[in-house]
Design goal:
There is one protein chain. With about 425 residues, the chain is of the alpha/beta class. The chain has 16 helices and twelve strands. The strands form three sheets. Strands 1, 2, 3, 4 and 5 form a five-stranded mixed β-sheet that branches. Strands 8-7-6-9-10 form a five-stranded mixed β-sheet, with helices on both faces. Strands 11-12 form a two-stranded antiparallel ribbon.
Length: about 425
């Protein structure tokens, strides 16, 4: 006889059953007939212990096993009658959750699997034939999350959550850089929340942290350094590169605003703004384009770019500063990058462009952390926040399909469910 492993899910031991037999069998399904042993308990109406079996009500439950075989369970639900007062009473049904919350364990597992897939609560309620409040109740009751132990390398970043309960726009996400698992999600990225969180972590655990990969948000550095001054902070390359591209974009907008919207210069800067930010590649610049604002001339991208840079000297200077920095990054090692960064900071601060002056000052304030982005830490490779940015992208998708998640605890649990196979497992 084939064993019903699925019974253990409901806390049923085969040895405790009065009747357990295979009623039917086929290649794709199996049917079992089961009946619980008689139990001794009192009548809820009069308190008498003179309870006898009146009859059985057959109930059918269908499950899909891990092997793809459909398991049908015919449960003979015993009904008792009191010999003293005549009241009837059904024995406890192990396939239905007791009390006022009557959702079967099968349904609970089904809902949790839907939550892992990132479906919105309204859609889960339709698929599972339960209310939205029941879905949220399952999330509150059966999904428990705990913070993970701090690893040697932490990636930390924020994502937009609009947490109205604490008037904070951004929440804080921390993951293990090497394993990619979520360590914890904080309601806010503000220093008071991060400091409170780290103050509750055992000191020996914080001392184990060697690297923190982050953007240029000062409270991250201040809070971690307070509890472990020996931590090496690494600024993600994407963020300091974004400072340079943003400066180029601000110069373009400033120059563009000097012209009327009907002028050719304005239209060129508006229509072909991406040419200023695109990395120059000769092959990609050989494609002919029809330029409507220049009397429908057919021009190569390089020719259009030349026309744009001739509009204003600031544009030419910004393009030279930005692309000199960007095209050199891939060919440097740690020592060469340190020297190159120092030269770059001087060029930015002496450029005469206020947009690049600010970037130069920012780079100078974060110089050590930016230089650390070239340290060969991960098996000789540089480390970055690419993995946590991917997690943030999935969180944005979750919020979008759910039309926003206003309950922070629900959002936190769903993040753990999506990114971890077992959200209750202690690591």
């Amino acid at each position: 006889m084939r064993d019903i492993n699925i019974l253990s899910l409901f806390g049923i031991d085969v040895e405790d059953l009065e009747l357990y037999e295979e009623a039917d069998s086929s290649p794709d399904s199996v049917t079992f007939l089961i009946r619980k042993r008689k139990e001794d308990f009192s009548c809820k109406a009069c308190g008498s212990f003179h309870m006898v079996t009146k009859d059985y009500k057959p109930k059918k439950y269908v499950f899909n096993s891990m092997t793809g075989i459909k398991v049908n369970i015919l449960f003979e639900h015993r009904r008792y009658v009191c010999k003293d007062c005549g009241k009837t009473l059904m024995e406890p049904n192990p396939f239905v959750k007791g009390g006022n919350y009557k959702v079967s364990p099968k349904k609970i597992l089904e809902v949790i699997n839907y939550l892992k897939d990132g479906l919105p609560a309204t859609l889960i309620s339709k698929y599972s034939f339960i209310s939205v409040s029941s879905v949220n109740h399952i999330l509150d009751t059966f999904v428990k999350v705990k913070r993970r132990r701090l690893p040697e390398i932490i990636s930390i970043d924020e994502f937009c959550s609009f947490n109205s309960s604490i008037e904070s726009k951004y929440s804080c996400l921390m993951i293990d850089y090497l394993r990619g698992i979520v360590i914890d999600v904080l309601p806010s990225r503000r220093s008071c929340w991060i400091d409170k969180y780290l103050s509750e972590v055992p000191p020996e655990e914080i001392r184990n942290v060697k690297y923190v990969v982050m953007d240029m948000y000062k409270p991250y550095k201040d809070c971690f350094r307070k509890y472990n001054p020996s931590i090496t902070f690494v600024v993600d390359a994407f963020h300091y590169v974004s400072y340079v591209t943003d400066a180029m974009e601000r110069v373009r907008v400033r120059v563009m605003k000097k012209f009327l919207t009907t002028e050719t210069e304005y239209k060129l800067l508006k229509r072909y703004r991406k040419l200023l930010l695109t990395k120059y590649e000769p092959d990609s610049y050989r494609k002919l384009k029809r330029v409507k604002m220049l009397d429908d001339q057919r021009m190569y991208s390089s020719e259009i770019l030349s026309q744009i840079l001739d509009i204003d000297k600031d544009l030419e200077d910004a393009y030279d500063l930005g692309h000199t920095f960007l095209k050199t990054l891939d060919s440097l090692d740690y020592d060469k990058f340190k020297a190159f960064l120092g030269t770059t900071i001087i060029r930015f601060k002496c450029s005469g462009l206020k947009e690049f002056n600010r970037v130069g000052e920012t780079f100078e304030n974060w110089r050590t952390e930016i230089e650390n982005s070239y340290l060969p830490i991960d098996n000789g490779k540089r480390i970055s926040n690419a993995r946590i940015e991917g997690r943030n992208n999935k969180i944005k998708t979750l919020k979008k399909v759910c039309y926003g998640l206003t309950n922070f605890e629900h959002m936190k649990k769903r993040i753990f469910l999506i990114f971890d196979k077992d959200p209750t497992k202690k690591q």
